[in-house]
């Protein structure tokens, strides 16, 4: 069995923390007027200690003022930050998920970090993987710096696959043979050997029929050569032949082969109820004590080629904070090479120079050593995140009932996607110049 050691991305714990150092406070407060405030959503004590240590070092060379790190539960994070922004008492800097940062940048709520980062040769802005700034840069303006660029990848139950005599996905991937067709074939071979209530494939976090539809659907569509929308024209592409072919391939697994968990059912990979799923490094801690052997492989490729897909969170400085200039300097400090090296023990980096040290950094991490380069490093270097439109909340609200129609057994995928694109086009075109 693959043994877990130090987690690459520590899972949040439910306990209330009180960490000494630069101070950890409640996210409900604006903090002391003399302190710079930084909001995060982690409650992991090791992560908070590292952040306190880093900000303490920063303070020594920047006037000695304290940095108060405020931990806000992730479920409440966006709401509480939005309230503080609208009330004119924003934190100075903080973590922000990519979709929310795009909307905030559009609304003028984030500081442009571009001049500070790009004009300082020692910062080495070009050390970042270019695609990592897909959602954080607009022209010369930089609205945030990704501190966590976490790739999605395949994880599989070796015991269940071996029992069925199915091929190992990592070995298939090594020769270019790990594709959606191979996953479909594997599913048909494995499913008859599974107990009732188990399935060959579970979508990412089992969420394809709900709010997490995009983390499985987007890499699937890309593998078939499609895309969600064209950022240059703002035109929805979910009804293109490539995108519809991808959706039909998944529907065949769910409704025809019955190898993918169907709507209304659950089968948790981490409980041994599914043979294959997609995940990120932060979820590997759930395998501690798992009663089965497991392995990892890249995401499956398709007719459109290989797919490398990443999720992101970034460091931003909030417009209207009491210490805008100093907050920008702290973002710069934390995302510089030295800060990135230290944070990389928890958060997959987008700096190429730090990725070059990945085998050393993650030698004691949860990923098998032979997967660090092909699964982690390669996926970040070649990967691209989901491109979020500024109207993302409205896109989610509009698409949810339409996706419900898509997952009906007798649905016509082309018709449903035509309907969805007709509704999404006006929202997507808002970000196109001249619209």
TrEMBL record:
Q: Kindly give the Gene3D superfamilies that the UniProt entry links to this protein.
A: Periplasmic binding protein-like II
- The superkingdom of the source organism is Bacteria
| Annotated signal sequence range | 1-21
What taxonomic lineage is listed for the species of origin? Answer: Bacteria, Bacillati, Actinomycetota, Actinomycetes, Micromonosporales
Q: What is this protein called?
A: Carbohydrate ABC transporter substrate-binding protein, CUT1 family
The reply to whether Signal figures as a keyword in the UniProt entry is yes
The record ties this protein, via PROSITE patterns, to: PROKAR_LIPOPROTEIN
Which terms are listed as keywords in the entry? Signal
Name the InterPro entries on file: Bact_solute-bd_prot1, SBP
What Pfam families does the annotation carry? SBP_bac_1
Per the record's keyword annotation, is Acyltransferase included, yes or no?
no
Query: Entry's CDD domains?
Result: PBP2_TMBP_like
């Amino acid at each position: 069995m693959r043994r877990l050691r130090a987690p690459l991305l520590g899972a949040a714990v439910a306990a209330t923390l009180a960490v000494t150092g630069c101070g950890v406070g409640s996210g409900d407060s604006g903090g002391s007027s003399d302190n710079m405030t930084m909001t995060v959503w982690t409650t992991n004590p090791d992560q908070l200690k590292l952040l306190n240590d880093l900000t303490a070092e920063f303070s020594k060379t920047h006037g000695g003022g304290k940095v108060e790190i405020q931990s806000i539960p992730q479920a409440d994070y966006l709401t509480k930050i939005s309230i503080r922004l609208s009330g004119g008492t924003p934190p100075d800097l903080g973590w922000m998920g990519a979709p929310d940062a795009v909307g905030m940048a559009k609304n003028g709520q984030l500081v442009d970090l571009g001049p500070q980062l790009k004009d300082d040769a020692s910062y080495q802005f070009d050390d970042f993987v270019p695609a990592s700034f897909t959602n954080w840069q607009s022209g010369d303006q930089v609205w945030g710096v990704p501190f966590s660029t976490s790739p999605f990848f395949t994880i599989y139950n070796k015991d269940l696959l071996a029992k069925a005599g199915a091929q190992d996905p990592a070995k298939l991937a090594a020769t270019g043979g790990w594709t959606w067709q191979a996953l479909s074939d594997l599913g048909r071979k494995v499913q008859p050997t599974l107990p009732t209530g188990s399935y060959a494939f579970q979508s990412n976090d089992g969420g394809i029929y709900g709010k997490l539809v995009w983390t499985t659907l987007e890499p699937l569509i890309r593998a078939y050569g499609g895309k969600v929308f064209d950022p240059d024209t703002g035109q929805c592409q979910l009804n293109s032949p490539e995108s519809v072919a991808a959706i039909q391939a998944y529907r065949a697994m769910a409704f025809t082969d019955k190898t993918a968990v169907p709507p209304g059912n659950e089968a948790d990979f981490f409980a041994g109820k599914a043979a294959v799923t997609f995940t990120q490094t932060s979820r590997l801690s759930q395998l501690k004590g798992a009663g089965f052997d497991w392995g990892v492989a890249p995401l499956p490729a398709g007719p459109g080629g290989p797919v490398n897909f990443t999720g992101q969170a970034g460091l931003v400085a909030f417009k209207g904070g009491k210490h805008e200039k100093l907050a920008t300097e702290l973002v710069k400090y934390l995302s510089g090479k030295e800060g990135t090296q230290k944070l990389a023990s928890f958060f997959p980096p987008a700096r190429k120079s730090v990725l070059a040290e990945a085998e050393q950094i993650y030698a004691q991490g949860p990923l098998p050593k032979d997967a660090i380069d092909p699964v982690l490093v390669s996926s970040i270097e070649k990967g691209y995140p989901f491109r979020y439109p500024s109207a993302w909340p409205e896109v989610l609200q509009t698409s949810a009932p339409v996706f419900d129609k898509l997952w009906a057994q007798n649905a016509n995928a082309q018709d449903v996607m035509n309907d969805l694109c007709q509704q999404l086009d006006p929202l997507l075109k808002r970000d196109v110049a001249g619209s």
